[in-house]
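Need tokens for this chain, all 243 residues.
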Amino acid sequence: MREILSDLVAEQQFLDQYLQRISLKDWDRATPAKGWTIRDTISHLADYEELASQVIAGTADLSRYKSAPDLDALRQEAVERGRHMRPQDVIEWWRGGRATVVEPLSHMKETDRVEWIQGDMSAKTLATLRLMETWAHGLDIYATIGEEVGDTPRIRHVCFLGWKTLPYAFKSAGEDFAPVRVEVIGPGYVKWIFGSPDTENLIKGSASDWARLAVRRTTPDKTRLKATGDAAELALQLVKAYL
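Here are the structure tokens for all 243 residues:
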């Protein structure tokens, strides 16, 4: 767990430090995601850190989420809470939630199982989901401010999650899944490969493109990703790293 938790904390701290540099008036600027403001975005992250903490502790009432016809309505409750708080208080809310997730995860094995909205998963996958969501919403915030922020090797986790969740993405879309291999080039020209070399379905390109596609911050036509095979072509349309 050490590597994923180290990268999770680094990603959260990077966004936290960025928030310290923006002006207070920017907190209520709309981001590209769902019309949320920066304040709303951090409120959502804080809310889901609290949920993850409760899941790990075994005190979460996930039935409320599993039976909800619209998860966005539940997310909006946290957004409304944050709208009545000062920006720094929203950050402290988020920080508190982060701490109550990372600390207990540090005492768990990668393979330990925890519940989540769509079913149980490993402790490592839960940590990876938290990193992915932090990174994805960070993209929204940087875009709102109009700044380019360079990728780090931490996007490897997002790339992996995009590949790992392909079966779920295909199932959600009512499509039959066939194994897909993903080969991408990350920062420093490092190559990351996910999947079996035996499959005929292959996606190749930049890690930056694949990671952004996996969190739905871009579309296939705006990337240089190349797909070989019908399942790979479909994967470009269906990939969704979040559950």
